[in-house]
Input
Amino acid sequence: MKILIVEDEVSLLKSIKDYLTHEGNICESVSRFETARQKLSLYDYDCVVLDLMLPDGEGMQLLKYIKSLHKTYGVVIISARNALEDKITGLNLGADDYLVKPFHMSELNARIAAIIRRKDHNSNTQIIFNEITIDPLAKTVTVNDTEVYFTRKEYNLLVYFVVNRGKVISKNAAAEHIWGDDADMANSFDFIYTHIKNIRKKLLEAGSKDYFHSVYGVGYRFTAE
Output
C-alpha cells in the first residue's frame, strides 16, 4: 500500500514510517499542513495517517480537503485529543478510523489493513484494460487469461500506469509512486526506463499489444492510441 503520514512530532513520524515501511508499504511523510495538501493534490494514496494538530493548520481542514478531491483514500486520524466530539467530527467528515495517542504500531497497521480490505471488498476489484486484467486483491496480472509474473515494483508500476491510462506520467511521478520519499535519493530515473522495458517485454511475450508510449523529455503514456 502507498501511505501518506501527516504528523509534526518528528520521533513519532519516524517510528510510524519505519514500522509501516518494514511491513512492506511505500510511505511518504510530511510534518506540515501545506506540504500535505500539495502532496494530496499531486499524488494518489491508499491511505492517509493524519494528525489533527499541525503547526500551520488544522487536520480537520485537511480532511475536508481530502474529501473534496473525491478520492477513495482511506483515512486514519491519530490524535492526542480523546474527546468524543473530536471523534464524531472526524468520522462525520469522512475519516475511516480514529486512533488516540499513544498507540501500538501493530494496532495502527492492523487498522490501516482493515480499511483497505473494506474498500477493496466494496469496489470492483478487477482492473481491466483490453486484454489485460489486474486483480489488486490477489496481486495478479493476466493477458488473455494467461497469468504474467512481475516483481513487486513492476506490478506496482504497471497498476499505476493502467489506472492513469491516457495521462502523461513523468519519470519523477512514477519513481515517487513506487519508492515514496526514497525516490529523492536517486541520481537519475534510468531505473524507471529499465522497469518499463521489463514490463513491456513480459506483456508482449504474453500476447499483449504495446501500450507504453514515450513522451520525449517528460516520461510515458499508457494508451491504446
Summary: Residues 52 and 59 are 4 Å apart (CA to CA). DSSP finds eight helices and 14 strands in the chain.
